[in-house]
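Ticket #263: bound-state structure for magnesium ion.
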Amino acid sequence: MSSSPTETVPTGLRCSLERGEALAVPRVCPHATVPQPGPERVTAPMGTSWPREGGDVPRAMGTGAVRVTAALSRLQIPGTCLLPEVTQQDQGRICVVIDLDETLVHSSFKPISNADFIVPVEIEGTTHQVYVLKRPFVDEFLRRMGELFECVLFTASLAKYADPVTDLLDQRGVFRARLFRESCVFHQGCYVKDLSLLGRDLHKTLILDNSPASYIFHPGNAVPVQSWFDDMADTELLNLIPIFEELSEAEDVYASLGQLRAP
Ligand SMILES: [Mg+2]
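RESOLUTION: The complex was predicted; output attached.
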């Protein structure tokens, strides 16, 4: 569709949604086990008029998830990680970082009759309705992923939009944590999800994302997925379930993904 709040919004709203301050402080997570190339981390052009989530600290929710906000990002000091400690339930599990837009859902400002959710989002003092379509088989996919992995939502979208969408999408509490734009690294015009900042063993970390730019620092950890907009015959998520079932047993995701990619 033509007016996603995250990637394909016409000019004015797109500026509000996509521009913002990225990480300004390089951080090195002591739990990362693979040295990273040290991407340039800069402050993105300011000027966003989208209000920030402010004053939050990570808080336990009914689902056991933790919201990581701008305030937390700024409070973090070198040597800390984006994710909290692994819970007892997830000990030994591979961590899967899962994208939101065009991977699990597609959202639009344009009214549609078959929206699964309609989420009010305030932009510059005006409340806009965001119409959200769930990708086919997303419920089945998330349920199975929650059984197999430590699942983390990681989106380059703003929490103001993505958090309420995830509340509606993930009613079982599959996501142990949620990371938003503030947790991305702004690199060459793109919001990159730097897995080395998570605080997890990179040999036990996967990322599922429709945008290769999101995992440009860690292509060896990526499970690509086609971008989804509104094709209700799409079966990508259903088809990914057996692949992730196999990956859940991996001792080293680099080796396992390498084997899966081999012709
Ligand atoms: Mg996406």
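RESOLUTION NOTES: The radius of gyration is 17 Å.
TICKET STATUS: resolved
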